[in-house]
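Quick log. Single chain, no ligands specified.
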Amino acid sequence: MRIGLLSDTHIPEVAAGLPSQLKEVFRDVDLILHAGDIYVPSVLDDLERFAPVLAAEGDDDYRETIKDKRVSKRHVLQFNGVTIWLTHERPMSWVGAEKVPDIIVHGHTHRDTMESNNGVLIVNPGSLTFPQYRHRLGSVGIINIDGGKPEVYIIKFP
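-> predicted structure:
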């Protein structure tokens, strides 16, 4: 299973659309997870040209986006024994959760990060179109799950 990760696209306010470079990176993904601040649902439609899409509701998303069936406050997903939470803002805690995740994917900060916290891998793919609140190309992430062992990495565009 290969999953594409992105967040904070802010389209159409900071970019007219998804950059063409995304086509190469996401060409063979099985699923795309968008960690919020999508703005308009047409971004999700454009991403679905590559693979099915699920998205977290961002704090700035437009009303029509929040109503989209692909968008939820949080998605809890399982693939080959790996549990993934998708949310916009990093959760403060997962202690006491019914199912503790292996990976948390979030956005909101516009900075790509990857860290381990009490056995949970926390990934922010950064912003594809507005990294560190600057108008330029940013980063996306990839999760490869093979045999129940996830491998996660960030791809930064030049």
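The longest helix spans residues 42-47.
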